């Protein structure tokens, strides 16, 4: 037998073996959906800021596709006349993935666990930190009363580890009472406008059971999947919850594959190594990648704005740090920025806005006054403030100091660097030297927390936490007594028309401060292989846009990247 015959025969046998292996896998191996994600999962805080939360955990209520609050684990609730008492009636069919029923006592225990769970987030902010020094005194009545209540709720603000996410900390429960197995009552110290919408967010307030001996796989929820395996920096595997109380999930397994770089995730989808990407706020797809993926015959790209809270980013000026204490300098920076080039480079993935909300969002104030693009006026304001180009090098000086400032940002969003470079060129045109500082996320958090920045590019996760001293957050980047008064009315006034007026007032004050030269929205763009993933409908819900994935199907016989390697 010659070599050619041997090689052909061997090739046939090898192909037969592969086919047999493939048949065995398709018969014996569960169907798996592979999603490319940007971040690893913290073993100390697996439920925070991760789009998979809504697949493992659920909440008492949920945000519907139109932005309304709808039943979930609670099938009904009542609110007292002054908005300080919420009584929830749990769905008696709801069970955890271990088959045990959801009870009011377990819901209470899960919220207490969320409050007291230690997180490795670094030291607390030292006294005097933050933009320009210590924050002003809290407005009267803001924040929880001191001390610990009989129900075990810690009503004092915690250290930095715990102060950002804990349910009772700043709008202050007076009590959380399990009335019976299926009735839970929250009593607030005063009305809180966002109470229901925040309860509807799985990365903030999931209902769970936890086994601290298993820091990741020990988390048990009521969602359509449960955590099966976890390998740090590589992947997490979810398997179908056989006890899921809302129906049988069609997809057996979901593997979340960590691919930190946004462009690499897009290439992996294009190459068939993953089935989906862009499924939560942290997994943004670059604009040029969206254009390329959209042209592929087997890929669907779906763009949407979030109904619960838009994905807004901003440039903040450290207004308490010279030379930005001079409002004319801040005004000049705002006037120097042309939004049109920014809109062009974000054509498919975002748009500039005039303030903290897009103009077509129901919460957007109709009468805010953003600075127009007027570089000539910007130069005039700087000259009035004493800045001149005495050495004719194109950069202004005053009292021997160049107008050289820095903009810090991180790689959270793949468009940030492009935005920063455009702003850099526009400020140079009016005599301002802007140095770009791209940082790792941890370093950027430290700079923001300590207030040691000139300009910072940052995502706005929750509107009030950036501007209201009644919410003691290291993320607070601008505040004033008038703004505190407006936020207090918006968040806590019992009169709905007055709340809406106060919300508009907050936007007017923020934009009018000229401490924010740029706001822009980043769309949630989800991309998936529709030849493999069928009947998937993403939800416009920010953190929870993959909530309905358990209803989707995997096409039999299609390429499964986890089996193809």
UniProtKB/TrEMBL annotation:
Residues 132-147 have a biased composition (Pro residues). Pfam families: SBP_bac_5. Residues 68-459 form the Solute-binding protein family domain. It comes from Desulfosarcina ovata subsp. sediminis. GO terms for molecular function: peptide transmembrane transporter activity. Residues 115-155 are annotated as: Disordered. Keywords: Signal. The keyword Signal applies. GO terms for biological process: peptide transport. This is ABC transporter substrate-binding protein. It comes from the Bacteria. CDD domains: PBP2_NikA_DppA_OppA_like (cd00995). Residues 1-20 form the signal peptide. InterPro entries: Peptide/Ni-bd (IPR030678), SBP_5 (IPR039424), SBP_5_dom (IPR000914). GO terms for cellular component: ATP-binding cassette (ABC) transporter complex; outer membrane-bounded periplasmic space.
């Amino acid at each position: 037998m010659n070599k050619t015959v041997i090689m052909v025969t061997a090739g046939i046998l090898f192909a037969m073996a592969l086919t047999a292996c493939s048949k065995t896998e398709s018969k014996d191996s569960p169907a798996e959906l592979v999603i490319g994600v940007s971040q690893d999962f913290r073993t100390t805080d697996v439920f925070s800021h991760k789009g998979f939360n809504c697949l493992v955990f659920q909440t008492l209520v949920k945000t519907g596709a139109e932005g309304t609050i709808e039943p979930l684990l609670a099938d009904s609730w009542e609110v007292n006349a002054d908005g300080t008492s919420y009584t929830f009636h749990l769905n008696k069919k709801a069970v955890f993935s271990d088959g045990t029923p959801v009870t009011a006592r377990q819901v209470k225990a899960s919220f207490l666990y969320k409050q007291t769970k230690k997180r490795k987030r670094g030291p607390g902010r030292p006294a005097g930190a933050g933009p320009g020094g210590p924050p002003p005194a809290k407005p009267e009545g803001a924040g929880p009363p001191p001390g610990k209540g009989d129900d075990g709720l810690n009503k004092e603000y915690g250290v930095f580890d715990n102060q950002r996410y804990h349910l009772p900390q700043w709008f202050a429960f007076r009590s959380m009472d399990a009335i019976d197995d299926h009735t839970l009552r929250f009593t607030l110290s005063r009305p809180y406008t966002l109470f229901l919408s925040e309860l509807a967010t799985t990365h903030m307030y999931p209902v769970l059971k936890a086994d601290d001996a298993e820091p990741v796989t020990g988390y048990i929820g009521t969602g359509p999947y449960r955590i099966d395996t976890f390998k740090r920096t590589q992947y997490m595997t979810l398997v179908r919850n056989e006890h899921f109380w809302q129906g049988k999930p069609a997809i057996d397994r979901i593997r979340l594959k960590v691919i930190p770089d946004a462009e690499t995730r897009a290439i992996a989808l294009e190459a068939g190594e993953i089935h989906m990407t862009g499924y939560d706020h942290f997994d943004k797809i670059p604009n040029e990648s969206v254009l390329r993926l959209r042209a592929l015959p087997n890929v669907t790209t779906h763009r949407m704005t979030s109904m619960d809270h838009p994905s807004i980013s901003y440039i903040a000026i450290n207004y308490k740090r010279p030379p930005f204490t001079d409002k004319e300098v801040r005004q000049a920076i705002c006037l120097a920025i042309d939004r049109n080039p920014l809109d062009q480079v974000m054509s498919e993935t975002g748009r500039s806005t005039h303030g903290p909300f897009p103009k077509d969002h129901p919460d957007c104030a109709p009468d805010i006054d953003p600075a127009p693009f007027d570089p000539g006026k910007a130069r005039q304001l700087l000259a009035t403030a004493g800045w001149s180009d005495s050495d004719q090098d194109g950069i202004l000086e005053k009292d021997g100091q160049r107008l050289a400032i820095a903009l810090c940002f991180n790689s959270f969003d793949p468009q940030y660097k492009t935005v920063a470079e455009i702003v850099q060129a526009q400020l140079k045109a009016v005599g301002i030297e802007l140095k770009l500082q791209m940082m790792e996320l941890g370093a950027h958090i430290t700079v923001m927390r300590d207030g040691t920045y000139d300009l910072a590019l940052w995502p706005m996760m929750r509107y009030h936490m950036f501007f209201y001293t009644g919410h003691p957050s290291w993320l607070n980047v601008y505040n004033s007594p008038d703004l505190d008064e407006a936020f207090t009315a918006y968040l806590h006034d019992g009169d709905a028309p007055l709340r809406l007026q106060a919300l508009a007032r907050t936007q007017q004050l923020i934009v009018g401060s000229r401490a924010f030269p740029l706001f822009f929205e980043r769309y949630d763009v989800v991309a998936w292989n529709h030849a493999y993933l069928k009947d998937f409908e993403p939800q416009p819900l920010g953190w929870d846009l993959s909530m309905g994935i358990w209803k989707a199907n995997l096409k039999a016989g299609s390429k499964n990247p986890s089996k193809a390697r």
